[in-house]
Amino acid sequence: MIKILTYIFALLILANCSNNTTYSGKLLNQDELDDLNFKDKKKLIQKLGSPSFVDPIENKFFYFAQKSKKKSIFKSKIEYSYVFVFKFNEEEIIISSKVYDTKNLENIKFSSDKTTNEIVKRGLLEKIFGGVGTQQELPTTP
Q1: Could you identify which of 7, 64, 117, 126 might form a hypothetical disulfide with 25, taking C-beta atoms 3.0 to 4.6 angstroms apart as the criterion?
Q2: What sign has the CA pseudo-torsion 42, 48, 54, 57?
Q3: Which of 59, 77, 60 is nearest to 19 (CA)?
Q4: 103/49 Cα distance (integer angstroms)
Q5: What are the pLDDT digits (tens) for 88-105?
Q6: Which residue in 108, 106, 101 sits closest to 64, CA to CA?
């Protein structure tokens, strides 16, 4: 029994000593980071591929890239973590581009905008019964 526990313990120690490099999002090399001056959506997609996220309301593309190294269970390090945001106009030309270093989250300012919640403003009976008993006027056609 002691031999089996010794083998398991040795196996865990050896497995813990391996180095792992993990990439998340887009794999970017230094050439792609140096040349991020694109003019339109077509060239951007040709160079970086499809985006990590598309915002159809504000017409923005988001690209995420992260590289982290893990030496042991307790020792991991994020080497870089970036979010690239490209905004387009109606002609699909890039009008603004921003890069956020998410490794240092204290440099990012979060929006204080809030969506109003009309349900909270209503009374208890309205919350329970909702629109029961209300009448809606139908539009009449001449």
Answers
A1: 64
A2: negative
A3: 77
A4: 23
A5: 998 888 888 888 888 776
A6: 101
SS3 content of the chain, % helix, strand, coil (to 5): 30, 30, 40
Tens-place pLDDT, residues 119-136? 556 666 666 766 665 555
CA torsion sign, 15 to 17 to 23 to 24? positive
Between residues 122 and 87, which one has the greater pLDDT?
A: 87
DSSP state of 82: E
In terms of Cα–Cα distance, which of 95, 9, 84 is closest to 47? 84
How far is 86 from 44, CA to CA, in rounded Å?
9
Q: For residue 89, give the 3-state DSSP assignment.
A: coil
Q: Where are the beta strands (DSSP E) in the chain?
A: 20-25, 53-55, 60-70, 76-88, 94-101
Number of CB atoms found within 10 A of residue 53's CB:
12
